[in-house]
Write a structure and sequence with these properties.
Elements (H helix, E strand, L loop, with lengths): L3 H10 L7 H11 L5 H8 L3 H11 L13 H8 L1 H13 L8 H23 L8 H7 L2 H9 L1 H14 L3 H9 L3 H11 L4 H9 L11 H20 L11 H6 L5 H23 L6
Helix pairs in contact: 1-12, 2-3, 2-6, 4-5, 4-16, 6-16, 7-8, 7-9, 7-14, 7-16, 9-10, 9-12, 10-11, 12-13, 13-14
Length: 286
């Protein structure tokens, strides 16, 4: 028998649209280790605006390139195969938004920032084979997006509690709804039939016991998301308050000192603003 909590969650996710075709195809490319650059180019061709945006970011000051490029293959090579996947995935998710308000914009700002940060955090820690980590970051708070869409008035109460009492969103959401964005995110991920490790990261990125996970790859990816979330929260990127990291977690992510975290935070902010322009267009208010 389903609990009241489960029934409420099902009520929320029952109206969630299917995962966009482009996003679904990107996940297939990520899952297939033999996927080629040509296959990614085919996905990009599904939206003519992707090409122009990719070229703009590839020629941006962030990459400190000595020459401008005008070829999409060169752009993918310069930006990075996995980064381009995540950016195109992010653009495709925009169509899911049935309405837009300030809260919605700030939530998506944070999701994009954590996506960018997760990639940089993983790279800093020396993780390999984590190309999908940007997708993990982008979707980590998808539950917040859908709670806000379903309960805009009530979610304002959540935000006020977070800001006034300086408590994590999970605690404020539980007090208002009896469930939190991790619960809703898990239901969304299951409905979209996302890979099990991604379902776990979405539902468990606030778990205080992640450092004890025995699955090494899952531990790396989920802690990278948690770390990125904390760093973006500290930097004020989007609407968030993520709670604290433990010393053991910072140590595991090779960010034990404040100096290291500050240096990486500067890179995150720079790259985030470049990628935000790519996904949303310059000077966009979403």
């Amino acid at each position: 028998m389903k609990t009241d909590k489960e029934i409420n969650l099902i009520d929320i996710v029952s109206d969630i649209p299917s995962l966009p075709v482009v996003a679904s195809r990107i996940l297939q490319i990520i899952a297939d280790e033999s996927s080629s650059l040509e296959e990614l180019k085919k996905v990009i061709s599904l939206d003519q605006s992707f090409t122009g945006r990719l070229l703009r970011i590839a020629n941006s000051p962030f990459y400190r390139a000595q020459r401008n490029i005008s070829d999409i293959t060169d752009a993918i090579t310069r930006i990075g195969f996995t980064t381009v996947q995540a950016l195109v995935f992010a653009i495709s998710l925009r169509d899911l938004r049935r309405s837009t308000d300030q809260t919605d914009r700030l939530l998506w700002d944070h999701n994009l920032a954590v996506s960018v940060a997760a990639g940089l955090v993983g790279r800093n820690a020396g993780f390999s084979g984590t190309g999908d980590i940007l997708i993990y970051g982008l979707l980590h708070d998808i539950g917040k997006v859908f709670i806000n869409q379903s309960f805009k008035v009530e979610y304002v109460r959540v935000i006020r509690r977070v800001q006034d009492e300086h408590i994590p969103f999970t605690k404020a959401e539980q007090s208002v709804f009896g469930f939190d964005h991790c619960d809703v995110g898990r239901q969304v991920a299951l409905q979209w039939r996302l890979p099990e490790p991604l379902v776990f990261a979405i539902s468990s990125h606030h778990d205080p016991n992640l450092i004890n996970l025995t699955d090494a790859e899952l531990k790396k990816k989920t802690l990278a998301v948690k770390t990125a979330d904390a760093m973006c929260s500290a930097a004020g990127l989007g609407l968030t308050y993520s709670g604290q990291m433990t010393d053991a977690e910072w140590q595991f992510m090779k960010l034990a000192t404040v100096k290291k975290r500050e240096a990486l935070s500067a890179d995150i902010e720079t790259e985030y603003h470049n990628y935000r322009n790519f996904v949303l267009g310059p000077n966009s208010n979403m």
